[in-house]
Amino acid sequence: MPSTHDLMRNVPILPLSVEEDSWLERLKSDWQVLADLASADLILWLPTVDDRFVAGAMCRPATSMTVHIDDVIGLYASAPRSVLLRQAMEREEIVSDMAVQWSGLYSVQRFCVPVMCKGRCIALMTVERNISAPVGQGDDQMWMQSAADILCQMIADGDYPAQETPSRSGHGVPRVVDGPILIDSEGVVLEITPNANSAMRRLGIHHPLEGRSLIEEITKVIRNESQIEESLAVVVMGRANWQVNVEAGGNTISIRAIPLLVDHRRRGAVLLSRDVTEQHRHEQQLMTKDATIREIHHRVKNNLQTVSALLRLQERRSDSDDVQDALREAGRRVESIAAVHEALSHNVDEVVDFDEVSQRILTMAVKVATVGHEIGVEISGKFGEISADQAAALATVLAELVSNSVEHGYPKRPGTIWVTAHREGDDLEIKVEDAGEGVELANLKRGLGTRIVQVMVRGELQGNIEWAPREGGGTVATLRMRPERTRAAVR
Hints:
- By secondary structure, the protein is an alpha+beta fold.
- It is built from 14 helices and 18 strands.
- Strands 1, 2, 3, 4, 5 and 6 form a six-stranded antiparallel beta sheet that branches. It has a five-stranded antiparallel beta sheet with strand order 8-7-11-10-9, sandwiched between helices.
- A hairpin with a 2-residue loop joins strand 10 and strand 11 (265-275).
- Mean pLDDT is 83; it is low at 486-491.
């Protein structure tokens, strides 16, 4: 949700401190609950330096017809509305518009709530109810609107939003339409909606709950469950603005508490309940799959390292220099792929932050290819995130390019290899340069390593590569590719 400052960047509103702006953001993140309880539109009005009021945010109810079909954010309050807003701001108390207003074919009842923060009125909120619109069941609607009135008074008293109020975005968050329950200060159920009754039956509570302690009834059905959240009693007793999941009988009910304060003292709470069994089961399955995928990558890494160790063992047992070189090269290629799988074993998104693994892969390639003298490798720029499939191929390609630079550029003397990555949008360009002796490009392209590079670049990486003499001596290889869109990027 955009911040108040972002939305009102070009509007001359009265300045707000960081704490006051955070207060408004918490209010906006949670006021859908208030709009649904009140069955009313909510509009947040900000005072301006020229003594006017501008609409900074609005929220429509999901439990009734809206009053404002068009968006009002950025509009200034009319003269009659400004009178109501100014009265509430000066008195620092809720002010009602005694006259019923008519908007087209329906009537509107309106009152204004000062938004208080640390004893200062920082904004105003109008609660505008379409009294001619059909609403939910009569008795439930009456107590929910009474609870909404208490919340409005808490805003005027500076008691709401609560400091611990978390962001309410995301799937599975309990809403008013899912099933509210009204409890008193001792946790006894005063009112419960049909949807909330259904949620409690999912837990195994089949008898009427009015007049009973909810925490006692829930404790009876979950006493044999292996996991019980520590915050359960705090939430179900309505003592804090928290949320908890209750599991029993294979079902999961999410419960969120909204304490109701009168004269700064807790008088009860509204509990919002929602059956999240299917969502919880789906999340558990995803977690299991993610853990399985990470374990597979871990085992693949271990197996590849075992293969590399066997190749090194066979290399030491061979008397042929050519065989030793071939086994050493094969071991290096296996180690490059193992490094990618190690990175994937710590990631659930099947992507690799290639900047984290590039240093290890390239340093290892230089070390394996160098005999009797020291070669340094310098990496600059950003590779970014690479999909799992492309990361393994890119690791092999870069290792081959660096190995070629060592073998052909610095066969008998020390030097430096520069690897530069430049990513812009969906394009990635990588240069591998050395200031060595240089090599005939025709001879270079006949080598096994070069053929491996060309096949992988055209195939897995779907890019192109070219070699050219470097200005001042040496060789530069330029790889251009378009990384696949990863899940992280899509989000």
